[in-house]
Amino acid sequence: MLELHTRAVEGFDTVLEARHRALGYHAFLVIHSTRLGPAAGGTRFTAYPGPGAALADALRLAEAMSLKSALAGIGLGGGKAVVRQPPGAFDRRALFRLHGEVIDTLAGRYITAGDVGVSLEDLETIAEATAHVAGRAGGLGDTAPYTALGLVSAMEAVAKARLGRPDLAGLRVAVQGAGKVGSDLCRRLAATGARLIVADRHRARAAAAAGPEGTVAPVDRIHAVEADIFAPCAIGGILTAATAATVGARAIVGAANNQLAGPEVADLLAARGVCYLPDFLANAGGIISGSAGILGYTEPECLERIAAIGRTADEVLAEAERTGETPLAAALRRAHAALAGGTPPGAAR
Ligand code: NAI
After folding, report:
1. 233 CA distance to ligand 1 centroid (A)?
2. What is the distance in A from the centroid of ligand 1 to the CA of 345?
3. How far is the CA of 118 from the centre of ligand 1 (A)?
4. Which of 112, 115, 86, 108 is nearest to 99 (CA)?
5. Ligand 1 site: residues with CB under 6 angstroms?
6. Which is it for strands 25-33 and 43-46: parallel, antiparallel or unpaired?
């Protein structure tokens, strides 16, 4: 039997817990905000140590989606679903179909897509039960190349504003994670003349992404290698007080969501002269391309919105310079102003 419970969490529009014990289904669906549009954000399917950790992840990720879409000015709110991977055997189709039914109870206020652990096939199963699914096969395809394109545009803004360089040529970029985004980013960076240092848990992936001109670094040292830009493209929470103290780059621009273990880490980085460009600004290419179908964007419109990531980064960096605060503080202010109903300057261009 499906059990649905909503709970009140301050600052969040809707927090729905859904459970079907016989199927091993246990999920949290979080709508952070629908102020600017339906709450969009993927479904994550992974094992969590307990329900508290799963809920905390869903809350953090849903809020980050609100900030990301608000800054990108794409008329979407923020949400996220987290489904706990059952410990033993389970019926994957039945589980994702049920997840679709649960999403459908939110009547379009939440639109899902793929995230960690969810395949295109799983999305098709979800879509059997609800129309509120983005990023299915037949759209613009994999979001990773668009995310990587947005990262390059954000890196160019940082190079100009903080590294005194007109472009990325000759800059050393340390890339953590050579998966879908990281490997595509490496290809684009190599084409701009940047020098690559790459680490991945799968060494062969790192070597392939680094190419003959690049180098491979150990996974536990990539954040500390001497570089101009560090690009976290693997996992969240990589920037802790400990790693911030040893970051070897002058700037950080990467794809991973929630890179900071806590907001105070941005201040620690700034105190060391490291420019941290917020992940929710830099990695918006994924949500922009992934939601093109639901928003009715063509590919050229999508590319134009991705190019705007660089312009927003220019403005955030200039504002941070002017006010003496971190780019995180400046970006948060813009995103919150947009969420509060103001028009985000520079958005939707
Ligand atoms: P992916 O799963 O294709 O790649 C992740 C890579 O990181 C894998 O090659 C994995 O071996 C490696 N890895 C995992 N832990 C590592 C560690 N501790 N050190 C070094 N390497 C490690 O994922 P994808 O799609 O490339 O995404 C990368 C990150 O960017 C994820 O955190 C994702 O949530 C985020 N992101 C992805 C978007 C997309 O469009 N795919 C959009 C926005 C954010």
Report:
1. 5
2. 30
3. 13
4. 112
5. 116, 143-144, 147, 176-182, 199-202, 205, 219, 233-236, 255-257, 283, 286
6. unpaired
> Token pair for residue 312?
């927003």
Could you tell me how far CA 26 lies from the centroid of its own chain? 23
Half-sphere exposure for 103 (CA within 13 Å, toward CB): 33
Q: How far apart are CA 26 and CA 44, in angstroms?
A: 12
Distance CA 4, CA 79 (A): 17
Query: What is the C-alpha separation between 160 and 46, in angstroms, rounded?
Result: 39
In tens, the pLDDT along 253-303 reads: 999 999 999 999 999 999 999 999 999 999 999 999 998 888 888 999 999
How does pLDDT run across 52-87, given as a tens digit for each residue?
999 999 999 999 999 999 999 999 999 999 999 999
Nearest-atom number in ligand 1 for the CA of 176 is: 20
Q: What pTM does this model have?
A: 0.92
